[in-house]
Design brief:
InterPro entries: Motility-assoc_lipoprot_GldH (IPR020018). This is Gliding motility lipoprotein GldH. By secondary structure, the chain is mainly β. It has 1 helix and 10 strands; from the N terminus they run αββββββββββ. It has a single domain, classed as Jelly Rolls (Sandwich). The chain has a 4-stranded antiparallel β-sheet, with no helix packed on it. A 4-stranded antiparallel β-sheet has the order 3-8-5-6, with no helix packed on it.
């Protein structure tokens, strides 16, 4: 009976991971219980097929300690030549009643946030992500952003 249950669990895991055929790169890095404003999360991307197009996503794991409805990020893509393209992005993280958006059954939610589409890569790139949240009416950014526990970056192959 125990071997049968293990076999079913293994088969379910294989099916779960094989359904994600578009995924080319998917990695998370922990920022602890708070994401400091000077903490930059960096991803070294693999060398990808330069003839294909890709969609890019920022992935986040957050919990009920996240105090805001939105999130501001500064995302920079560094090319092999050293040129860096910087984008300031805003995402909605919660409904007006304060319930977190994203997927998950517990108070931890995963959000897959669209970043760019139809991107071609030529060589080895780096991605740098930092938070840029500010409280309403205040100029300095939030020093330690609570509720974000992991920051991820995902690349999917375009159909």
């Amino acid at each position: 009976m125990r071997i049968k249950n293990s076999g079913i669990l293994l088969l379910a895991a294989i099916l779960f991971f094989s359904c994600d055929k578009k995924r080319v790169f998917d990695q998370y890095k922990s920022v602890g219980s708070e994401w400091h404003k000077d903490s930059v999360v960096t991803f070294d991307l693999p060398v990808l097929d330069s003839t294909k197009k890709y969609n890019l996503f920022v992935n986040l794991r957050d919990n009920n300690n996240y105090p805001f409805n939105n999130l501001f990020l500064i995302v920079a893509i560094e090319t092999p030549s050293g040129f860096t393209k910087v984008d300031t992005l805003e995402y909605q993280m919660a409904n007006p009643d304060g319930t977190l958006l994203g997927n998950g059954f517990t108070d931890i939610k995963e959000s897959k946030l669209f970043y760019k589409e139809d991107v071609k890569f030529r060589g080895k790139y780096k991605v740098h992500i930092k938070q840029a949240v500010r409280e309403s009416g205040k100029i300095p950014g939030v020093q330690a952003l609570e509720g974000i526990t992991d920051v991820g970056f995902r690349i999917e192959q375009k159909d």
